Amino acid sequence: MSTEDRPPAPRSLAEALRARGDVPLGALLRSRPDLITPVPTDLTQLATRAGTRASVVRALERLDRFTLQTAEALAVAADPATYDELLGLTAGDDADPAVVAALPHALDILREQALVWGGDDRLRLVRTARELLAPAPQHPSPTGLGPTVQEATAGMSPGRIQGIVTTAGLSSTHDSVSAVTALTGLFTDRTRMAALLADAPADSLDVLERLVWGPPYGQVTPDPAPRLRWLLDRGLLLPTAPGTVVLPREVALHLRRGLAHRAPEPVPPVVEAVAVHRPQVVDSTAAGQAYTALATVEELLKDWDEGGPTVLRAGGLSVRDLKRTAVALDVPEPVAAFWVELAYAAGLLAADGEADERYAATPAYDEWLEAPAAERWSRLATAWLAATRTAGLVGGRDAKDRTLSALGPGLDRSAAPEVRHRVLALLAGLPEGAAPDAGSVLARLRWERPPHGARPEDDPRTRLAQWALSEAELLGVTGRGALSAHGRALLGAAAAVRHPEAEGSGPGDSGPGDKLPVHHHRPVPVVPLSPAEQAVASAAAARLLTPQLPEPLDHVLLQADLTAVAPGPLRRPLADMLGVLADVESKGGATVYRFTPGSVRRALDAGQAASDLHAFLTAHSRTPVPQPLAYLIDDVARRHGHLRVGAASAYVRCDDDAVLNEILADKRAAGLGLRRLAPTVLAAQADPAGLLEGLRSMGFAPAAESAEGDVLITRALAHRTPPRTAPEPVPDGPPVPDDVLLAAALRAIRAGDLASTTPRKPGTAPAVNGELPRTGSAETLATMQAAVLTGEALWIGYVNAEGTASQRVIAPIRVEGGFVTAYDHTTDEVRTYPLHRITGVAELADDAG
Predict the structure, then answer these.
(1) Taking every annotated instance into account, which residue ranges of this chain make up the domain WYL (predicted)?
(2) Are residues 277 and 412 in the same domain?
(3) Which of 350, 369, 351 is nearest to 298 (CA)?
């Protein structure tokens, strides 16, 4: 393309955006969705919004390390800079090949995100980004560079500048500007600078060496040492304030061989594998952990079935209740907090909203229990992926130094879903069965999103990633540290191509200490899915997990020591009934239940008869019912209901007055406030529930009765909250626009831009900052009618029924009844506008296209 045919260079960011097509403009709006919240009226407003401090900070925070280094290099370059100048700052004098290869892509990202504009001969960093990244005493640059010679000598006397120029071996000049220019030319000339430094004392070079990579500032006394005086006299150090000197940027760049950063990082760190297991081993291990996850959540909510812990006044669980829950689940407290938060995120757990507010299972929990095991797991895993509540924060402190409690406020971290997806995506990029080195995963994430002003271990995203790795293992998304097949499907990565490194790994597993070579290409791209896509992925994960889970059993093994062994998971009716009839003694691959008088009485209280219990055990045991167990059931059943407790406050009645005499004579009954009303009736000051509990602690087996004298069947009715929805994740800024919204936004921006940039006829005031044209109603009507006859296009201002103002370019077709029907060039359709909503009209230039 000749110089004459080349389009003119853009003079502003707005002009650069105006030259973009819909695809690159849409890419900008996707990467920076805050720019269309709300939709700007035109491209000028879009460019203005793209340069605001809040938007630029957000965009910079989402750059990878090398792209950010490229922006930082542009901030210390001249404005504008050429591509070759930028390449010199990033690749150095040695032209690092990796940097040379990576720089075009980094620059494309900066251009796409409207942080840089202009051609390769005039690269400009957005002014706000330059202000944020350029070196300043108040906020040093990550490059470690100081001010330029021109900036550092801005307040220096002309005589002092001339003295520096002369001492440096340059000819004196007639003014300070030319003197500074000459000094800058010396410092940027590699040959002359090498000659100047060749004469420097060794200890002076040591001073420069200490300052070269930053910070560039140092302290000096009023009478500097000779090694410092030599540098000050030649401008290699320049005073910035009394007692403070700085290494000029040009000098530092010479000593650095042109590098803006000590260690450019054009290539992301490789995620290394520490072990490779057979995929079948990974899947079975993950499935076992998935089954444990389901059992743990069931146990948690069964423990809270009749109403769980009370809700703290500030919200959440108390420390004591969390400890009790951890003991009940036999897990550490942080793990218990994870299960509690997971059940809450899945909508299975909530506060009941009563006056004495407690936590309890929701009605959705009952529906969840009836679903197949794999579907129940996929619901938990999907909720975990999308949740912004972060269990790892429990026990920490908030900004006001208050303890963060499980289920309480302050646990939302909007970046958590993105970090979980990214961690799992990195695992999906490894060969199948490969377990990653956690340190390399964290290093990769820090390269993709560099921490800002925080040590690596204090970086919030690093902590989120560490929690994501451990939680994925707990939940069964990973097994032995490697991503399982159902975990890949959950991400929508089920069709990921098997990597060559995974082939032929053999049946054995490598040891955890073996460092394995891993591919260097980027991982399988996995991004958060839309709700519909996630539903499909979750269903696929459930299908892959189903064959890995053990099939529920319909039998147990009864033993003579009053125990029953369940050699695997039990079917729902059997598990529910056995949970009432016996107490769980130990859990694991096989669950051991123990029968006790209390557990048998619990079943009788629930309405079962002794014959029902004998029939149940006979039907579901692969071994004969042991005689001790049969005797236990018959003995408890014989005494069950012999005593009757009702409301007086409470009373006890029994046909055998000898039993009542025994109760009255027992010292343990003193606290019940018993007195005889009749030979077979005792009255009590305690309430019926307290009286039942007291008599049972004395070894009796009383039964409660109604006011009519009938035995009350005290089934363990579950306490449920009213219908509750799962907590909504807290968004990490405006959502990424979908295709429909993006197309509508682009159309509106283009329309507004056409209206604001279309040439007007001479004498018509141009639009300023989106200002609408203003004309009287008579003039508006006359201009519209004339345009109908001539077929000319007009520029109008229009205010819709909601009060939103906009500019439009229309070609009137008909004017009647207070309305104008026109072809709207900005929306590419024929529309009818009420004349009273048109603020004004202006004619367009004859060549307006």
Answers:
(1) 779-841
(2) yes
(3) 369
pLDDT at res. 513? 38
Contacts for 213 with CB less than 8 Å, ≥ 6 apart = 144, 256, 262
Helices assigned H by DSSP within 346-459: 363-370, 373-386, 416-428, 438-448
Residue % of the chain over a pLDDT of 90: 44
- How far from 596 is each of 176, 564, 601, 629, 695, CA to CA, in Å? 99, 12, 8, 9, 17
**Three-state DSSP class for 367?**
helix
Q: What is the number of domains present in the chain?
A: 5
Q: Give the separation between CA 472 and CA 475, rounded to whole angstroms.
A: 5
Crossing angle of helices 597-605 and 627-639, in 10° steps, is 60
CA neighbor of 386 nearest in space, from 415, 408, 351, 423: 415
Residues 126, 155 within the same domain: no
Give the end of a domain, one of 619, 639, 659.
639
Reported as a single tens digit per residue, the pLDDT across 350-401 is 998 888 899 999 999 989 988 999 999 999 999 999 999 999 999 998 888 8
Q: Sign of the C-alpha dihedral, residues 196, 202, 204, 207?
A: positive
**Side-chain half-sphere CA neighbours of 814 within 13 A:** 6
Q: 736 in helix, strand or coil?
A: coil
pLDDT at 306: 73
In a domain, 373, yes or no: yes
| 101, 182: one domain | no
Instruction: Give the tens place of pLDDT for each residue, 509-538.
Output: 444 334 433 333 333 334 567 788 889 999
Q: What tokens appear for 567 in the block?
A: 């050699």
CA-CA distance, 705 to 680, in Å (whole number)?
15
Averaged pLDDT score across all residues of the chain: 85
pLDDT at 380: 96
Domain containing 769 equals 765-843
Question: Crossing angle of helices 65-75/97-112, nearest 10°?
Answer: 80
Q: What pTM value is reported for the model?
A: 0.77
From CA 444, how far away is CA 426, in angstroms rounded? 9
742 to each of 22, 38, 327, 530, 738, how far by Cα in Å? 10, 12, 51, 16, 6
Tell whether 97 is covered by a domain.
yes
25 pLDDT more than 90: yes
Q: Which two tokens stand for residue 632?
A: 């236990």
In a domain, 459, yes or no: no
Percent above pLDDT 70 for the chain: 89
Residues 162 and 191 in one domain: yes
pLDDT of residue 803: 82
User: What gap in Å lies between CA 709 and CA 687, rounded to an integer?
Assistant: 17
447: β partners: none
Indicate whether 32 belongs to any domain. Answer: yes
Query: Of 254, 249, 253, 221, which is closest to residue 237 (Cα–Cα)?
Result: 249
Residues 361 and 390 in one domain: yes
What pLDDT was estimated at residue 496? 38
Range with lowest mean pLDDT among 92-101, 285-294, 715-724: 715-724
| pLDDT score for 499 | 36
Are 293 and 436 in the same domain?
A: yes
C-alpha span between 59 and 100 (Å, rounded): 24
Domain identity same for 109 and 178:
no
